Amino acid sequence: MGNNDGVALSNSALEPRTKVNQKLSSRCHKDSAKKTGPSKDKSSSSSSSDDDAHIPVTEIHLKSHEWFGDFITKHEVPRKVFHSSIGFITLYLYTQGINYKHVLWPLIFAFITLFILDLIRLNWPFFNLLYCRTVGALMRKKEIHTFNGVLWYILGLIFSFSFFSKDVTLVSLFLLSWSDTAAATIGRKYGHLTPKLARNKSLAGSLAAFAVGVVTCRMFYGYFIPTYYYVNKPGEIEWTPETSRLSLNTLSLLGGVVAALSEGIDIFNWDDNFTIPVLSSLFMNAVIKLFKK
């Protein structure tokens, strides 16, 4: 049997699972036939088929990303709307006098529930497929096979709600909800025009975070706290004009700095859904306490 016969035999024995594998296998068997003849070519074909059996041939696709394209994939509009809405919902609950300490246990319960769901889906492909089809519009592609960013979001809030005063906790949530969204939106649009500050962080994004942080602090401390003073118990609000050497305008500017720093600092590549509320809580608390009368 000649070399050509060996090639024909090896090619007929192969049933490649993809066109790419077919080409690669064909080339490998041609070389094998030339060197060792048809008998070794058969064993090579069998070995190749066994190896291919462990290669995943399907991948989970986020259908919503395919249907809406850049609307979800690039601009992440549903994700940003959801992200921002949490701040507005929290602000509404504040005006209704909801005790912010009562939010801690629901956050812990939500974290445990989502963590268990992620463990299940990351170890059960079929469940992961159903999960991604259900909430895929709110997910990034990298989250298909990793833990969901919502876990980091909730974990950061648990930290803030556990250790800080009412106003500091709520401001940290607002900065996460609004400043981070503004930084991501402006940074993606104009970040290439400004210097890069850290991994995926640009000066344009940090300036957007600063501006939103200033407005957020000005509105919360200047309007909502005085207007809805009756929903606050004694000692819940850390900053007041009577107890601080900082004016409202100065506090607002410092709030913008806190927003920009919290959004711009990259700590060990941790998810900024966790680092922003943690850092903003620490920074705001330090600023307010430092200038206490």
UniProtKB/TrEMBL annotation:
InterPro entries: Dgk1-like (IPR037997). Keywords: Membrane, Transmembrane, Transmembrane helix. It comes from the Eukaryota. The chain crosses the membrane at residues 81-98, 104-124, 145-164, 203-224. One of its GO terms (cellular component) is endoplasmic reticulum membrane. One of its GO terms (biological process) is phosphatidic acid biosynthetic process. Residues 28-43 have a biased composition (Basic and acidic residues). Residues 1-25 have a biased composition (Polar residues). Residues 1-53 are annotated as: Disordered. The keyword Transmembrane helix applies. One of its GO terms (molecular function) is ATP-dependent diacylglycerol kinase activity. This is Dgk1p. It comes from Saccharomyces arboricola (strain H-6 / AS 2.3317 / CBS 10644) (Yeast). The lineage of its organism: Eukaryota, Fungi, Dikarya, Ascomycota, Saccharomycotina.
